[in-house]
Amino acid sequence: MPRRARYRADGGVLLRLWCGVVFAFLLAPIVIIGLTSFTGGETVAFPPTELSLRWYAKVLAHLADAPGVKPGLLGAFLLSLRVGVVVAVGTSVAGVLAAYALYRFRIRGMAILRQYFLIPLMLPQIVTGIALLVWFSQLKSVGPLTRLILGHMILTLPYVILTAGASLEASRPDLEEAAIGLGASRPRAFFLITLPLIREGVVAGAIFALIISFNAFTVSYFLYSGDALPLPVWVFEYMAYFLDPTLAVISTFLIAITLLAVILLDRLVGIRQLAGR
Amino acid sequence: MAGPERRRRRRARWLAATLLLSPAVLITGSLLVACLIILRFSFNTWSTTSGMASTWTLDNYVAFASDPFHYKALLTTLRIGVLVTATALVLGYPVAYLLSVSRHKHLILFLIVLPLMMDVLVRAYGWIVLLSRSGLVNRVLVGTGLLARPMQFLGTETAVVLELLHEVLPFTILPIAGVLQRIDPALREAAVGLGAGSVTTFLRVTLPLSLPGLLAGTLLTFSLAMSAFVAPLVLGGGRVPMMSILIQQQMTLLLNWPAGAAQAIVLVALVSLLLLGYDRVLREAPRAGS
Lengths: 277, 290
Hints:
The complex is a heterodimer. Helices cover about 75% and strands about 0% of the residues of chain A.
């Protein structure tokens, strides 16, 4: 069959070339930031005329105090980290409990509830941002840090429920039933049997929540205040005054963190899970 | 004897489910409460002198539909949405195809997911560096003689479209790849065995079977492009009037919350319609694919 040899499921050179262009497009802004961070020049002009680490030194100087934006870079980073950790822990607890009920209890209406938890994914983030801005302005007693944390918990909860739910669906419910049959109470069976079984999914959900909280610019933009300024908003504010290569250094640092997180997530649950299906 | 016992058990299960679900229901519910409040505010009136007054009027929606500056923002948003979606489909479909047949699935998925997980502001900054007057794009265009002198990209629709394309491409590729992966390779082999060339096989077998994924990817991409905020804010510098920029300016600069709320409700209505279609298409996809 001579024709058979001509048919290539893997696609020809043209397909590979096309995909190469698309990948170059996807990676271009990331690569350019990394390269620009080593420039010795005053601007982000590319290619850099000379290489140096002077902007890395400048970032160190900005840690405590930067021109234009208060507080310093380190303060914004620590705030983002604090919010992210609280959000990751909080949503993981709420999300795993909810996923357990959603995916293990056969009660009518659970299918509708699963849809209910996806609402934050369907709303444009700018709408989530302004809706919370308006609501919080009516509730005078809610502090700026609590606003950010609640806003980020709303955004991250669907992801945690989905990853924990996927792990629950993949694990065997009969092991837990066996433990109960042998005399364990349901909570005991959950903590000793089910939770260890879905551990990877839970940890992945928490890391996912941390990344999303760290990157949630749009919602943070409407909820931040001078006392609670997360890192992406800090970068945005700094951008309004300067576009010098210090931002490239900060971005390179954030890219490195994300790269590590993605590799970690891949090890834990596989990249397929991250891709959504 | 079995009756009361079963009823007691069922009540215990309901109680357990309620306890387990309540923290999560409250978290998501607070967003719903916030949305109901802006829905209510969208029927209020506002004036520069006396601020917001509680009423029930459709004035904000009428103002939106009759003020050219406002409905033009909607048209700009739709135009950018169509442009970005069409380009993303042309760029993304071959990648989805490669992803479904390649032996290096893992690497390809990694390259697609990595930008997805990056801070959107970091990516936007990357595009600023690429598109600035002395940036790589201008260097290449001038160097190859396509442009006589560097062009101003930042603050234009071109820059917004490029950044947006970068944001949505993974969401275009993944649903298409999901459906392509479910197509039985035997169908393609049968077509080839019956004498079809690779182009005919693609056009008559693969492409028609992947239509549900294509449609789902289109709807998801379009809804994301329409709700974009960072691209018009950072790359457009607020000068490309998309719906999100309009809403942001009403809420934070003009402080006309009822008008901003009404514009947000319009945006939500449009995006929800697109996403309901997406959900529906994907749910029916397995039947069409097998």
